[in-house]
Write a structure and sequence with these properties.
601 residues; alpha+beta; nine-stranded mixed sheet; five-stranded mixed sheet; 20 helices
């Protein structure tokens, strides 16, 4: 499906549309309409079911605004940038790497240094997309993508809207580990909004300034914890390894998760496990696997803390877009917050058997350090303790040298070794404090919504007429069913149709009621928003001595079966959770009918 057609359908049928249209619109912000909000909610519920409930993980909901110190620790203040170039003629700002990609065919130009991007703009005569003026000679600068704010009145406390949901999980780790009783591995999930002040939002839901993420942070002991790889080892995946991307004629690798991990194509068994879980989940929610792949990050685009990183990518409108990322983040995040924060980001790992070890210790004589160093005495004592653990040999001389303070105020002090009271002691330990490693599957919800709509878009012919329909999985579709009276001037039919709709809603199903226009036209409207089943109330279902029945029509095949009203809610619920329409036909029999062309009476 072409991008313009998808955006038009999404707007016309209430899936999504640009926000704030009455005030000229705001680039990078979209409103999900009634159909889109329902589809998005169903997608999030399916993700929650698989990555939270089935994995035995726990979900939290952290604030979207966090203090500046959090992002200083995480590195976002220094390194969360995109490459910006500003047109000298019209003043419009653009993503420099995107312009280079469009002009040269280079993939992932964001991994290139700014100087190289400037050179490529010059070599290829890249012009401003807004006014056509040449951009050669314009500086390419780093632009931080975070939205800044103040927490509290006046100057307040500097803060930022979170650029990812992950930091809310990492910051609360000291509390979350208590809920897990300090036992690894454990996983924490979160679904919620994130904010990035994109330079040039584009592509519908593909690049937004406010978007929804679904993330799992899996905390593990890297020396002891292994994933349950056997659950997904036979799952077939299409991989695009970095080595293949570097080759001119590099090809996909169609393999299984187990083989890819054993052969080292996927470096981390944990990453491999979640690729397998994701592959099955994407198939479940309706992603076209012929237009889907896992692409490994090239060395230049991989975050410095990530040992291995893969993206789930889908093909939409001829382009491959990232819809999820899977990274082995090591201990980077927790170590950074441990260094900056005022709490412990480690867990205590108990040994199977107590161990006796030799440990270097100091017991500084504060009656000497106090008068000599005054307010620095405590810092000197702490420096001596740190030095003893790092370099015990430093205490063999008559004096010991330590440094205290930060930056320009850093000072060097010499202390008599006997004042430090250095010794080596035998200590029996029951365990040790370790910093867990993190494995992170991170999903873009809006991008997945756009992928599902693009992959579900179908056209065919029914009764000699062309129709457009969205072949959405019943679990994900905005509505579970629609109910129609065959004609609207027949009171017994409209009464029963209204009662059927009410009963289905009471059973927890999302149901539309439509009595406007011909029955065929009503079917077409429901097909176009992806409603998987339509329930038609006709005279055959209310006449005779048997129980009341209705005709159930399946969207993709237009096949129909007659089902007792008393069984209808249970049957539709079963179809939503994995049952097939063929099973329904086997139980009740197929119906041959021409109701699609019946006109309104």
């Amino acid at each position: 499906m072409a991008g313009a057609e998808l955006v038009e359908l999404a707007k016309r049928r209430g899936f999504f549309f640009g926000a704030n249209g009455a005030y000229g619109g705001t680039a990078g912000f979209y409103t999900f309409g009634p159909q889109g909000a329902a589809l998005k909610r169903n997608l999030e519920d399916a993700w929650r079911d698989r990555f939270t409930l089935q994995e035995g993980n726990r979900e939290i909901e952290a604030p979207t605004v966090m203090p500046e110190a959090v992002f200083e620790a995480s590195g976002h203040l220094e390194g969360f940038d995109d490459l910006l170039v500003e047109c000298g003629e019209c003043g419009e700002s653009h993503r420099a790497d995107h312009l280079v990609e469009d002009a040269t065919g280079i993939e992932d130009a964001e991994a290139l240094p700014g100087e190289e991007v400037e050179e490529l703009i010059r070599e290829h005569d890249v012009a401003c997309p807004s006014c056509g003026s040449p951009l050669a000679g314009r500086d390419v600068e780093d632009f931080n993508l975070m939205f800044a704010t103040d927490i509290g009145p006046g100057d307040g406390q500097p803060g930022y809207l979170r650029p990812e949901t992950a930091q809310g999980i990492f910051v609360e780790f000291p509390r979350l580990k208590e809920y897990a009783r300090g036992s690894l591995p454990f996983g924490i999930t979160q679904i919620g909004p994130a904010y990035r002040n994109e330079i040039s939002p584009r592509g519908g839901l593909l690049r937004l300034r406010e978007f929804t993420q679904a993330e799992l942070e899996q905390f593990i002991d890297p020396e002891a914890d292994e994933p349950p790889l056997e659950r997904v080892e036979d799952v077939e995946v299409r991989l695009y390894p970095a080595t293949a991307q570097d080759e001119e004629d590099g090809e996909y690798l169609d393999t299984t998760v187990g083989e890819a991990v054993s052969e080292g194509v996927i470096g981390s068994p944990w990453v491999g496990y979640y690729l397998g879980v994701a592959q099955e989940w994407y198939e479940r929610v309706g992603v076209d696997t012929d237009r889907f792949r896992f692409r490994q990050h090239l060395a230049g685009e991989r975050a410095h803390y990530a040992a291995d990183c893969w993206d789930a990518e889908s093909e939409v409108d001829g382009d491959w877009i990232e819809i999820a990322g899977f990274a082995y983040r090591g201990d980077y995040d927790l170590s950074k917050h441990d260094a900056y924060g005022d709490d412990s980001f480690t867990v205590f790992k108990r040994y199977d058997e107590p161990k006796t070890v030799e440990r270097a210790t100091v017991d500084p004589d504060m009656s000497v350090l106090g008068p000599e160093f005054g307010g620095d005495a405590a810092a000197v004592a702490e420096a001596l303790e740190t030095l003893a653990g790092r370099d015990p040999d430093a205490f063999e001389d008559e004096t010991v040298t330590v440094e205290v303070g930060e930056g320009d105020e850093r000072e060097t002090h010499e202390i008599d070794a006997d004042v430090a009271n250095f010794s080596i002691e035998a200590v029996t330990e029951n365990g040790e404090h370790i910093t867990p490693h993190v494995v992170e599957p991170s999903f873009g919800v809006g991008r997945t919504v756009q992928t599902l709509l693009a992959h579900a878009y179908e056209t065919d012919e029914v009764d000699g007429e062309e129709r457009t329909y969205l072949s959405l999985a019943p679990e994900i579709a905005p509505r579970d069913a629609a109910v129609f009276p065959l004609v609207t001037n027949d009171e017994p039919l409209t009464d029963l149709a209204g009662r059927v709709a009410a009963d289905l809603r009471e059973a927890g199903l999302a149901v539309a009621y439509d009595d406007s226009g011909s029955i065929g036209r009503r079917y077409r409207r429901q097909d176009e928003v992806g409603t998987p089943f339509c329930v038609t109330v006709d005279r055959d279902g209310i006449e005779g001595d048997g129980p009341e029945t209705v005709t159930v029509r399946e969207r993709d095949s237009a096949a129909q079966a007659r089902v007792p009203v008393a069984d209808l809610a249970d049957e539709l619920a079963a179809l939503r959770t994995g049952g097939t329409f063929d099973d329904l036909i086997d139980r009740y029999g197929a119906v041959e009918t021409d109701v699609e062309t019946t006109t309104e009476n």
